[in-house]
Amino acid sequence: PQVNFSVNGREYHLDYYLTDGIYPKWANFIQSIPIPQGSKAVLFAQRQEAVRKDVERAFGVLQARFAIVKNFALCWDKVKIGKIMRACNILHNMIVEDERDEYTQYDISDFQQGEGSGSSHVDPTYSTDISTNIANQMGVRTRIHDRQAHQQLKCDLVEHIWLKFGSDCGNRNSHCRFPFK
Predict the structure, then answer these.
(1) Of 129 and 42, more confident
(2) A Pfam family name for this chain (predicted)?
């Protein structure tokens, strides 16, 4: 989908996914750093891997609870898949709330993201009904396969994570000094 967000003062217009090392280095796949060198790289690798694993676990819970999420979905349209996933998320949350001990209290602010140097916005008017012609597909393919965009986004994310969470990590380097291969 068309998204607009900024990281480390730079604007981006492609969504991105946290992946493991088996995915190609495309603009919308952000892998961890396999052998991180330096405090920034170590912190980024820890955060990226933790969040990616959280998402995998959450999806595993949905797959275990709802058979429809396990099934082959490539033949369905994106809108229908989105509605199914939202419905499963809502049902799961309702079940969890119902099963939770009613006396358990938690502070919701622990789960909310604070305003940081990054911001994002998903265009709600984006339509999946765009006519699919070869020129349109090739343009999107070129943007996604851009290794320089991948490296720039990864570097900006490393800096963003460092600025947001790195105060306890000691050595504060001022810029991204390592190439991603």
Answers:
(1) 42
(2) Plant_tran
One-letter amino acid of 60: G
Distances in Å between the alpha carbon of 20 and those of 29, 34, 37, 48, 91? Answer: 9, 9, 18, 9, 29
Q: How much of the chain, in percent, has pLDDT values that exceed 70? A: 72
Cα torsion 128, 132, 138, 141: sign? positive
Which residues, including other chains, have CB under 8 Å from residue 159's CB and lie 6 or more apart?
A: 7, 8, 40, 175, 176
Domain boundary assignment for the chain: 2-168
Question: Tokens at residue 172, please?
Answer: 């504060």
pTM, entire model: 0.62
% the chain with pLDDT above 90: 31
Query: How far, in Å, are 14, 51, 63, 139, 153 from residue 25 at the CA level?
Result: 14, 19, 28, 18, 11
Tokens (6 digits) for 108: 């919701």
Task: Give SS3 for 127.
Answer: coil
What is the rounded distance in angstroms from the CA atom of residue 175 to the CA atom of residue 38?
12
Residue 27 near residue 145, CB atoms below 8 Å:
yes
pLDDT digits (tens, 9 = 90+) for 42-92: 999 999 999 999 888 888 888 888 888 777 766 778 788 888 888 888 888
Among 33, 38, 2, residue whose Cα is nearest residue 19: 33
